[in-house]
């Protein structure tokens, strides 16, 4: 009975909530592993789930949190469907997961990357692959696109008269992404080398550039720029986009919208800006700055 209920639960997540395929695969694995340990999940008791929590004791807190989340969602679904009259998931552990700060590049690192690109483009006839490199990095760092979003851009996605993109990201959520003038110029220069019958802006074979190839391209650029390649990836460039915008005074809610985060708590991880910058901001911008200090 567990397997049928798991299938129904995952089908609901896909159809009604637009949950990503990788998340569905992880949830299926977690639920099937739980069933293998305690038996039929539909009939499981709170004691059975406590035993399951004990079984997870050696796992990382983040793994436990994901597994518990899958089971809580599953039992909420069973209740809603009338397959259970209670919800035993209150017996599951609630580990505290500390989010690690994302890797981030300094402004100097970013200048090195774009300096290398500028050198390659500063010739009479830049190589098409260098034009592609410029477009990729401008969109990664200049707009904070996810690698999957960048790779799957249609050839016609950006227009010279349209300073934004409408993207469908995680969970099928649409968002508006501003595109800088220099990014649009870089894309236009690269698109001149993309066949007009190509469906994709960054084609490769019969499809589009793979995430692995994008990772390799970013790593090669790091090496050429004198940056430790282990410190950089497409996702690190997205982190740098977010962090540097916040350092420049961007609004957290606006950043949430640009990054496509459903929850503002996800965006708040990018608030690891330099403490000195925050102190200077308060000293310069707080309303109390203009009030005379009280003498004792």
Detailed description of the structure:
With 296 residues, this protein is mainly alpha-helical. The chain folds into two domains: 90 residues, DNA polymerase, domain 1; 174 residues, Intergrase catalytic core (hpI Integrase, Chain A). It is built from 13 helices and four strands. The termini are far apart.
Which helices and strands occur, and which strands form pairs?
Layout: H1 2-17, H2 21-38, H3 46-55, H4 61-80, H5 107-121, H6 128-143, H7 147-151, E1 164-168, E2 174-178, H8 181-191, E3 203-204, E4 207-208, H9 211-224, H10 234-247, H11 252-259, H12 264-267, H13 275-285
Antiparallel strand pairs: 1-2, 3-4
Distance between the termini: 75 Å
User: How many β-strand stretches?
Assistant: 4
Structural class by helix and strand composition: mainly alpha
Tell me the number of helical segments per DSSP (H or I, 4 or more residues long). Answer: 13
Strand order of the largest sheet: 1-2
Series of secondary-structure elements, N-terminal to C-terminal = HHHHHHHEEHEEHHHHH
CATH-assigned fold name of the largest domain: hpI Integrase, Chain A
Low-confidence stretches: none
Instruction: Please give the radius of gyration in angstroms.
Output: 24 Å
User: Under the CATH scheme, which class of the largest domain?
Assistant: Mainly Alpha
Average pLDDT works out at: 81
Number of domains: 2
Assign a percent range to the helix content. Answer: 40-55%
The CATH homologous superfamily of the largest domain: Intergrase catalytic core
């Amino acid at each position: 009975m567990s397997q049928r209920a798991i299938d129904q639960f995952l089908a609901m997540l896909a159809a009604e909530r637009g949950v990503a395929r990788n998340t569905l695969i992880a949830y299926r694995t977690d639920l099937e592993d739980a069933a293998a340990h305690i038996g039929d999940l539909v009939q499981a008791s709170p004691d059975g789930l406590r035993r399951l929590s004990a079984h997870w004791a050696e796992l990382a807190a983040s793994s436990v949190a994901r597994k518990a989340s899958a089971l809580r969602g599953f039992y909420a679904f069973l209740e809603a469907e009338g397959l259970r009259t209670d919800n035993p998931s209150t017996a599951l552990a609630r580990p505290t997961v500390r989010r690690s700060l994302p890797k981030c590049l300094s402004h100097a690192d970013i200048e090195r990357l774009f300096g290398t690109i500028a050198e390659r483009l500063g010739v009479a006839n830049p190589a098409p692959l260098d034009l592609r490199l410029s477009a990729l990095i401008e969109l990664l760092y200049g707009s904070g696109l996810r690698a999957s979003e960048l790779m799957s851009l249609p050839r016609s996605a950006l227009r010279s008269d349209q300073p934004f993109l409408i993207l469908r990201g995680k969970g099928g959520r649409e968002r508006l992404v501003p595109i800088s003038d220099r990014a649009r110029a870089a894309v236009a220069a690269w698109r001149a080398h993309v066949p007009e019958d190509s469906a994709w802006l960054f084609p490769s074979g019969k499809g589009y550039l793979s995430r692995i190839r994008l990772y390799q391209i970013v790593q090669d650029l790091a090496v050429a720029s004198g940056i430790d390649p282990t410190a950089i990836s497409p996702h690190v460039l997205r982190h740098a986009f977010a962090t540097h915008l916040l350092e420049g005074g961007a609004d957290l809610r606006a950043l949430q919208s640009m990054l496509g985060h459903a929850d503002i708590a996800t965006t708040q991880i990018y608030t690891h800006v330099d403490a000195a910058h925050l102190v200077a901001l308060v000293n310069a911008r707080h309303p109390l700055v203009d009030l005379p200090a009280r003498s004792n």
